[in-house]
Structure formats: C-alpha cells, structure tokens
Amino acid sequence: MITLKGQHIYLRALEPEDLEFVYAIENNEEIWEISNTQTPYSRFLIRQYLENAHQDIYEAKQLRLAICLLNSDVAVGLIDLFDFDPKNSRAGIGILIQKEEDRTKGIGTEALQLVIQYAFHQLQLHQLYANIGTENSRSLQLFSKFGFQKIGIKKDWNLNNGKYQDEYLFQLINFKK
Q1: Alpha-carbon distance 118 to 57, whole Å?
Q2: Are the beta carbons of 77 and 102 closer than 8 angstroms?
Q3: What span, in angstroms and rounded, lies between the C-alpha atoms of 91 and 76?
Q4: pLDDT-derived band of residue 2, with 50, 70 and 90 as boundaries?
Q5: Which of 30, 31, 75, 144 has the maximum number of C-beta atoms within 10 A of its C-beta?
C-alpha cells in the first residue's frame, strides 16, 4: 500500500511550480474566512514558503500537501497538518479544494482519508483536530463521515463580513494505537 495514493487522487509535496496555484488560493478573498487570512500574500512570500516546504514536519510543525488527480501533476487542492505537537502526539488538519465544481466529486473525502491514515500510521499521532465554522456544512459533513466528534464550540470566534460566527472544534482520537 502506498500511503499517499488513493483510487482517484494522490498527495504530493509542494513544488516550486505550484507558485501560481498557491498564490491563487492564498489570495482568494472568498476563502479567507476559512483560512483566517486577512491580507494578500505576494508571490515573493509564497516563493520563499515553497523554498522551505521541504522541511520535515518535526522541524516546520506543519505539512502541506498538494491534492492531485491520478495521472496528473496539477494540484486541485491542498491538505494540511498544522500545529504539529509531537510531545502530545496531535495535529490540526485542514483541507481546501480550489474549484467549486471539484468539491462534490469525492476528492476531499479521499484526501482526508489518506492523511488520517498517514497521521495515525506513519506519524503515530494519537489525535487530530479540526476547526470548522458552524456555517460550513460541507466540511462538517466530511469530517463527521470519518468519525470526528464535535467536542466544543467557540462562541463568536470569527468575524466575517461584519458578523461574529461560531466555530466548532472537532476531534478524532486514534484508539488503535
């Protein structure tokens, strides 16, 4: 079994050629509320980020992978492990499929499954968590599908379009460890 390859997609490390893809995602104001971004990123900063993307998760405390369709090297989304905490054996997880028309094709489902397997088997993590806005029904459904449990709510956590919105904290514990 290849850990980061599924039936329809595979996950790969970011490459310098992903500059325009990452630039487009990071500067898409429609998704800033999901990523808690407030300012645009320059190509220069993203180029620097990509130059350091080779760092090990233990060094960078983050792992960002491109989601690609099989037989293609073109990225359709990103999936992240962030706030990696080896002492407590946990990490946050986030996912984004760039184009709206690709968000209902099972790409996110397969990518999330692969990263959960990687986190629990390769990294030996005890738990993963996700922060999901209460209005984000697709993400709530996706993470629930894999057994993530809603363990808390952060009231008035994010200010979006002049209105405070709540955010759920979801958690998945690896009981097979």
Answers
A1: 12
A2: yes
A3: 23
A4: low
A5: 75
Tell me the two tokens of residue 91.
């990490």
Domains in the chain (CATH in brackets) are 9-173 (3.40.630.30)
Edge-first strand order for the sheet with 127-133 is: 9-13, 63-69, 75-85, 90-97, 127-133, 163-173, 149-160
* CB-count exposure of residue 22 (10 Å: 0-12, 13-18, 19+): buried
User: Distance between CA 82 and CA 54 in Å, rounded?
Assistant: 15
Beta-carbon neighbour count of residue 123 at 10 Å? 20
User: Can you tell me the distance from the alpha carbon of 120 to that of 136, in angstroms, rounded to the nearest whole number?
Assistant: 25
- Report percent pLDDT > 90 for the chain: 66
* Residue type for position 146: F
Residue 36's pLDDT band (cuts 50, 70, 90)? low
